[in-house]
Amino acid sequence: MRTLYLRNVPDEVVQRLETLAERAGLSVSAMAVRELARSTCRAENPALLGDLPDLSVSAEDIVDALHAGRSER
């Protein structure tokens, strides 16, 4: 496992991280690692999307279907 040092972290970010860590019963370091792990999962999204089959459905059709479904509620 590697070590990461962060510099120039704004005080308000550190304070929010401390609050989250306290609520979760974790150290600030453990909370930071958990949040970094969650946020870096997005790096794999393009590959995941590229592996999906092309269903020839336009984004406009999807949005229209969403609006239609929501208006039925």
Walk me through this protein's architecture.
There is one protein chain. By secondary structure, the protein is mainly α. Helix 1 crosses helix 2. The longest helix has 14 residues. The model has no long low-confidence stretch (mean pLDDT 91).
Write a compact overview of the structure shown:
63% of the residues lie in helices and 0% in strands. With 73 residues, it is an all-alpha fold.
- What is the mean predicted local confidence, pLDDT? 91
The H-and-E topology, N to C, reads as: HHHH
Q: Main sheet, how many strands, which sense, barrel?
A: none
Count of DSSP E strands?
0
- Helix share, percent: 55-70%
- Calculate the terminal CA-CA distance, rounded to whole Å: 49 Å
Beta-strand level of the residues, as a percent range? under 5%
Count of helical stretches: 4
Structural class: mainly alpha
Q: Radius of gyration, rounded?
A: 20 Å
Shape: elongated
Low-confidence segments: none
